[in-house]
Automatic annotation (TrEMBL):
Lineage: Bacteria, Bacillati, Bacillota, Clostridia, Eubacteriales
Species whose genome carries this gene: Ruminococcus bicirculans (ex Wegman et al. 2014)
Ranges annotated as biased composition (Basic and acidic residues): 149-172, 186-201
Protein name: DUF4316 domain-containing protein
Stretch list, region Disordered: 149-201, 223-243
C-alpha cells in the first residue's frame, strides 16, 4: 500500500455549480481516466485507498454512472473471464457486449476481420468505467474508421484497375506480353542451337578420339613387328654360330 496522493483534472469549471464526491476505492486511476474520457469537467485527488473530486453538476448523470460502476464487481468478473484464456482471442467473450454498444448484431461483428474484433473488445475493457454514450462513441469511431479504411483500399484498387484499363495501358501490356513471348521463343531457339553445337562437338570429339586410338594401335603394331623381326634375326645368328 502507498499513501502517495495523485492529482488529476483541471480547475476550469464554475465553482458555483459543483458536485463533490468521496469514494473509498482503489480504482482511482481508472475512474480519473473515465472522467476525462467521458468529457466531465473535474478536479480531484486519489490514493490507493480513496478518491475525492468535484465536477460540473451539469454532468451528474455521467458521473453517477461512473461511480455506480466503481461500486460493482462487474469489471473484475469480466477480467477473470478473460484471463481464463491464454491469448488475445479470450477478449472475444466480450463480443456480444461490444455488438450491443455498436447497435449491430454479434454475427455482423464476427464477419469482420478477427484483428478488428479483438481490437474492439480490448478497447471496451479500457472504456468500461466510462458512461454509455462515451463507450458507444469511441467504439463506433474505431469501427467506422476501420470500415472507411477498407473502403478506401477497395476504391484505390478500383482506381488502379481503371487506370490500367485504358487503350494505351492495354497496348503497353500487350506489347510487353508479345516481347516476353518473343524473348522466350528466342531463348528456346538459342538453347536448341547450343544443344546442336554441343552434339556436333561431341561427335567430332568422338571421331578424333577414335582416329587417335587407331593411329596409336598402328604404331604399337609396327613397333611389335620390328621387335619380332630383330628377335628372329638374333636367334638365327646365334643358331649359325652354334654350328
Amino acid at each position: 500500500m502507498s499513501d502517495h496522493i495523485f492529482s488529476f483534472g483541471e480547475d476550469n469549471f464554475p465553482k458555483d455549480s459543483r458536485e463533490y464526491v468521496t469514494l473509498d476505492t482503489d480504482k482511482g486511476k481508472l475512474l480519473a481516466i473515465a472522467l476525462k474520457t467521458s468529457g466531465v469537467p473535474h478536479i480531484g485527488t486519489f490514493t490507493d485507498k480513496q478518491m475525492r473530486f468535484s465536477y460540473d453538476a451539469d454532468y451528474k448523470d455521467t458521473v453517477d454512472e461512473i461511480v455506480k460502476k466503481a461500486s460493482s464487481d462487474e469489471f473484475e468478473e469480466m477480467l477473470r473471464e478473460i484471463k481464463t484464456h491464454k491469448d488475445d482471442s479470450s477478449y472475444l467473450v466480450l463480443l456480444p457486449s461490444v455488438a450491443h454498444y455498436l447497435n449491430v448484431t454479434e454475427g455482423t461483428l464476427r464477419n469482420r476481420p478477427n484483428e478488428l474484433q479483438v481490437q474492439l473488445c480490448r478497447m471496451f475493457t479500457r472504456l468500461w468505467y466510462c458512461d454509455t454514450p462515451t463507450i458507444q462513441r469511441e467504439l463506433t469511431r474505431a469501427y467506422t474508421a476501420n470500415r472507411q479504411t477498407e473502403r478506401d483500399l477497395e476504391e484505390a484498387k478500383e482506381r488502379e484497375v481503371q487506370q490500367n484499363n485504358t487503350p494505351e495501358k492495354r497496348e503497353t501490356v500487350c506489347f510487353a506480353d508479345t516481347q516476353h513471348r518473343q524473348n522466350v521463343l528466342k531463348g528456346d531457339e538459342d538453347h536448341r542451337d547450343k544443344a546442336d553445337l554441343a552434339d556436333k562437338e561431341e561427335v567430332r570429339t568422338g571421331l578424333i578420339s577414335r582416329e587417335v586410338i587407331r593411329r596409336q594401335a598402328e604404331m604399337i603394331r609396327r613397333k611389335q613387328a620390328v621387335k619380332d623381326k630383330l628377335t628372329a634375326e638374333k636367334t638365327e645368328r646365334e643358331r649359325k654360330f652354334g654350328q
